[in-house]
Design goal:
Helix content: 25-40%
CATH architecture of the largest domain: 3-Layer(aba) Sandwich
Number of domains: 2
Distance between the termini: 72 Å
CATH class of the largest domain: Alpha Beta
Strand content: 15-25%
Bound molecules: nicotinamide-adenine-dinucleotide
Number of helices: 15
CATH superfamily of the largest domain: Aldehyde Dehydrogenase, Chain A, domain 1
Length: 503
């Protein structure tokens, strides 16, 4: 293991980069070769408290909430422009820390920019309403920002998920303490430099890196937050909900998933196989809406398994920074061991490995946490691999006979995030879409994302939504103002007895 410590970040608090109070740093490893590629200041409770104080002061006293709305909008646009200009460099920062190929990470920067641009448009469009009651009073609402928003984000889409949260919070006039994942903190931390360059006033975006159970927990526990958002695992969501619940902090959670890819027998098979490979193996399968279960009609089952295996056998594994690479390693040794453990147990439970299932051959791949794209057949619904989030390059192919059975298999999991339905029958597509318990449904597609769509899930996949016109209101609350306009005064105590107007 070599030590290349040329990348190093401190904590961004009140517009300044400063070390953690303890002076400690934690290391970030490149999952492709085990090299230590960066040192990050390691925040503890007192650093997080300082960051929240800075965000609170920027909210109460800074120029952010009082500047013209159009000025806020310009800053968000400038952030988008800088992200787009630096997309290759930012993509590289992600690829060397989470192992995703640069073709994916750099392309995703255009999505990051699109979130800032979409929400920039809301800065001067957040408005209240007048409320008709009776002629004695004039009533109106104004929408006020919630204050300091705490944001806990994951490593699989480091910059994109940070911007799904940062952009609307800024547009609404909130201030932020962002705690990126310790596994891939580089690009979301660089967002701090980008925001400062774009003219974001100091203290509006504070970034504290550190470990989930220390820095993350301290942020979740801070009573000064107006809102706390988490994208992460379901178990983390449950832990965070308990901590934040003691302060009644409003929460929004994007958690785990186990998306089905339902393939009916009337499809163009090549199209469905391509779609399933895309659904299952982008990001080495490490996405919340990964197509981890292909639910395939019995009449095309064998052919589907064989075509899918053939398709994924051609996926090019390699150095994530090489533009030709199509699949990188999984994020960590811990993830690597867990995923291989799932495959081993499924195999002992009777599943058949149609393709993959182990570390790939090749000198280039030997030091990285690589796992071959894996296709499992003969999986039964009650196996852990069919129920739990594996978060790796593994797809279980499960047969069904009837539409009802397909829906029942699809819904028979603790999660309810994504689902894709592959069919050429329009009525069936919409009928099944209505019956699936998931927040996001694609028909003959998968993974599509746009800032204008509401993103989120049911059941153990979390609550609340990200993106869309409606979501901006999740960062503000209505404040109701009631003005007495009738000329006569009101004296409740002048005429005692029932029958008068009370409220
Ligand atoms: P994770 O839950 O381990 O970590 C997410 C964030 O929470 C990190 O910043 C982490 O440091 C912090 N954290 C961890 N433990 C904490 C604690 N006890 N208290 C406070 N903060 C804590 O998740 P991950 O491994 O980074 O990401 C993978 C998970 O995220 C998967 O389950 C995936 O499905 C989910 N995810 C969901 C979506 C979605 O949109 N629903 C998107 C991406 C990822």
């Amino acid at each position: 293991m070599t030590h290349n410590q040329s990348i190093s970040y401190d904590l961004l608090i009140n517009g300044e980069w400063r070390p953690a109070k303890t002076g400690k740093y934690f290391s970030v490893e490149n999952p492709f070769n085990g090299e230590i590629i960066a040192q990050m200041a390691d925040a503890d409770e007192s650093d997080v408290a300082e960051a929240v104080k800075s965000a609170e002061s920027a909210f109460n006293n800074g120029p952010w909430t009082s500047m013209p709305n159009s000025e806020r909008s310009k800053i968000l646009w400038r952030i988008a422009d800088i992200v787009e200009d630096r997309s290759m460099e930012l993509g590289r920062l992600e690829s060397i820390s989470n192992g995703r190929p640069i073709s994916e990470t750099s392309s995703q920067m255009s999505v990051v920019a699109s979130y800032f641009r979409y929400f920039a448009g809301f800065c001067d469009k957040i408005q209240g309403s007048t409320v008709p009651t009776d002629s004695s009073h004039f009533n109106y609402t104004i929408r006020v920002p919630l204050g300091v928003v705490g944001q806990l984000t994951p490593w699989n889409h480091p910059m994109m998920i940070a911007s799904k949260k940062v952009a609307p919070a800024l547009a609404a006039g909130c201030t932020i303490v962002l705690k990126p994942s310790e596994w891939a903190p580089l690009s979301p931390t660089e967002l701090g430099n980008i925001a400062l360059e774009a003219g974001l006033p100091k203290g509006v975006l504070n970034i504290v890196n550190g470990l989930g159970p220390i820095a993350g927990k301290s942020l979740a526990a801070d009573p000064r937050l107006g809102k706390l958002e988490l994208t992460g695992g379901t178990e983390t969501g449950k832990a965070v909900a308990q901590i934040a619940g003691t302060n009644l902090t409003p929460l929004q959670f994007e958690l785990g998933g186990k998306a089905p890819v339902i393939v009916f027998d009337d499809v163009n098979l090549d199209d469905a196989v391509n779609g399933c490979a895309f659904a299952s193996f982008i990001a080495s399968g490490q996405t919340c809406i990964q197509g981890s279960r292909a639910v395939v009609h019995t009449s095309i089952y064998d052919k589907f398994v064989s075509l899918l295996s053939e398709k994924v056998s051609a996926i090019k594994l390699g150095d994530p920074t090489n533009p030709e690479t199509q699949m990188g390693p999984v994020v960590s040794k811990q993830a690597y061991d867990r995923i291989l453990g799932f495959i081993e147990n499924a195999s002992s439970d009777g599943a058949k490995i149609a393709h993959g299932g182990k570390h790939p051959q090749g000198t280039l791949l030997k030091d990285g946490y690589f796992i071959e794209p894996t296709v499992l057949s003969g999986v039964r619904q009650n196996m852990p691999i069919a129920q739990e989030e594996v978060f790796g390059p593994v797809v279980c192919v499960i047969p069904f006979d009837t539409e009802e059975e397909a829906v029942s298999i699809a819904n028979d999991i603790p999660y309810g995030l994504g689902c894709s339905i592959w069919t050429s029958n329009v009525s069936r597509a919409h009928r099944v879409a209505q019956k699936i318990v998931a927040g996001i449904i694609w028909i003959n597609d998968h993974h599509r994302l746009h800032p204008a769509i509401p993103w989120g899930g049911f059941k153990d996949s979390g609550y609340g939504r990200e993106g869309s016109y409606d979501f901006i209101h999740e960062y503000t609350a209505p404040k109701y103002v009631c003005v007495r306009v009738e000329p006569e005064g009101f004296d409740w105590y002048a005429n005692p007895g029932p029958g008068q107007r009370l409220n």
